[in-house]
Amino acid sequence: MQSLALPAINARMTERDEALHIHDPVRTKYVRCTPEEWVRQHWIHFLRNARNVPLGLMTVEQAFTWQGRTHRADLVVHTRTGDPLLLLECKAPSVPLTQDVFDQTSRYNQELRAPFWIASNGHMHYVCRVDLDAGRADFLDELPAYDELCAKASAA
Q1: Alpha carbons 130 and 137: distance in angstroms, whole number
Q2: Over the stretch 41-86, which tens digit does the pLDDT of each residue have?
Q3: How many domains does the chain have?
């Protein structure tokens, strides 16, 4: 798998059914290692190791209904009280982060109402703080640590 603009990970990998699988510590199982999954797993490791996000507060492919259809958010980080804190939308490294990606992330977040979201293809990452009530979004230079994210979210 290709290197990304995220810290390297020491992932457990295995070959199954002629396809590479990677161990997902959130779902506690091996999943097919697609390019998008490779990006997601790097983010999971980064969030856990560099931003102190507890694995138990991450949800992979969280389902929600938007306009009568079921969608799945790639990764949602929750507060300790269970509220959505951060929405992560992952794309394969070959997929450019276009306005369509930002629109998709924003639509998903209208339903989830997380105060932060990230759009990433593993090479480029956009971190945004969102005030849904005011209809405002500010891009951040970097993602704060988990406790700081929680503090910023409750101060809003």
Answers
A1: 4
A2: 999 999 999 999 999 999 998 777 777 888 788 999 999 999 999 9
A3: 1
Cβ atoms within 10 Å of 46's Cβ, excluding its own? 18
Q: What is the pLDDT of residues 101-129, one digit of tens each?
A: 998 888 888 888 999 999 999 999 999 99
Supply angle C-alpha 81, 31, 14, rounded to 5: 130
Cα–Cα distance, 59 to 45 (Å, whole number): 13
- The answer to whether the CB of 27 falls within 8 A of the CB of 59 is no
What is the rounded CA–CA span in Å between residue 136 and residue 140?
13
Give the domain extent around 133.
13-155
In a domain, 85, yes or no: yes
The tokens for 73 are 């958010």
Map tokens 């369509």 to a residue. Answer: 100
Contact predicate 87/81, CB 8 Å: no
Cβ 63 vs Cβ 71: under 8 Å: yes
Is this prediction's pTM over 0.90?
A: yes
Q: Closest Cα to residue 3, out of 33, 32, 40, 42? A: 42
Quick check: is 7 in a domain? Answer: no
